[in-house]
Amino acid sequence: MAELTIKTFNDKLHNIYIKGEVGEEMWSFLVDKINEMRSADEDVSENNTSALLALGLLTEAKRPPVNIYLSTYGGSIYDMFAIYDEIKKLQETYEVNLYCVGKIMSAGTIIMLAVDKKHRFAYPSTTFMFHTLSSFTYGKIKEMEEDIDEAKRLHNLMLKIYKENTSIPEDKLNDIYKRKKDLYMTAEQAKKYKIIDKIV
Q1: Cα separation of 163 and 76, whole Å?
Q2: In angstroms, what CA-CA distances link 189 with 172, 186, 199?
Q3: H, E, C per residue of 95-151
Q4: Of 38, 39, 58, 35, which Cα lies nearest the Cα of 48?
Q5: What's the pLDDT score for residue 4?
Q6: Could you give the 3-state DSSP secondary structure of residue 37?
Q7: How high is the pLDDT of residue 41?
Q8: Per residue in 93-133, pLDDT tens?
Q9: d(CA 3, CA 6)
Q10: What confidence score (pLDDT) does residue 174 get?
């Protein structure tokens, strides 16, 4: 009978640190880390599931959760949504925890909301900042109108995410989007408005 060996998952690959400006580089870094982790996990899972089945213990080896540590001032709105969707997709096969570190501002506030509420955490000194998107347009009138329509579409998409995933009051959201006011929050305030679940 062949020797049965139980492999261990590489916990280091399950801790992903993303920081700096939200842009293509951040998105590419996240995708590379996820692919590296998936590849390693599939090898361990295939080996362990076969070994445990042979022993009659269970049908599938359980994978550990993914811990994402995020710190950012914000950046590109399109790359923000790319990262948001990538994390959403990751949750289809993994339990994902997100830890807010230092600052979560602008585009970073949408990225963190990709994770289920009960898995969103923040360190005590983390600062949060919410504001409307910024854009600049020039050219022919029709081109500027198209740019404005696109900005409105993105604005409504962000607003929908905030409303569905937090309890930020309507008047505060109006301050952000109608009066172009920056809204700063402490970790305690973020917890109050259900932006995070716990302070760690």
Answers
A1: 21
A2: 13, 5, 11
A3: CEEEEEEEEEECHHHHHHCCCCHHHEEECCCCEEEECCCCCCCCCCHHHHHHHHHHH
A4: 58
A5: 44
A6: helix
A7: 84
A8: 999 999 999 999 999 999 999 999 999 999 999 999 998 76
A9: 10
A10: 75
Domains of the chain by range and CATH? Answer: 11-199 (3.90.226.10)
| Cα 71 from Cα 60, distance rounded (Å) | 34
| Residue (of 66, 32, 33, 63) closest to 47 by Cα position | 63
Query: Whose CA is closest to 122, among 35, 52, 187?
Result: 187
Q: Measured between alpha carbons, how far is 168 from 165 in angstroms, rounded to an integer?
A: 9
Q: What whole-number distance in Å separates Cα of residue 190 and Cα of residue 172?
A: 13
Cα separation values, 127 from 67, 73, 85, 189, Å:
20, 10, 24, 10
Residue 112, amino acid: M
Q: 117 forms bridges with which residues in the sheet?
A: none
What gap in Å lies between CA 165 and CA 82, rounded to an integer? 18
Residues of the chain with pLDDT under 70: 1-9, 45-62, 133-145, 147, 177-180
Q: What does the buried/exposed string (b/e) look like for 139-169 if buried means 16 or more CB atoms within 10 Å of the residue's CB? A: eeeeeeeeeeeebeebeeebeebbeebbebe
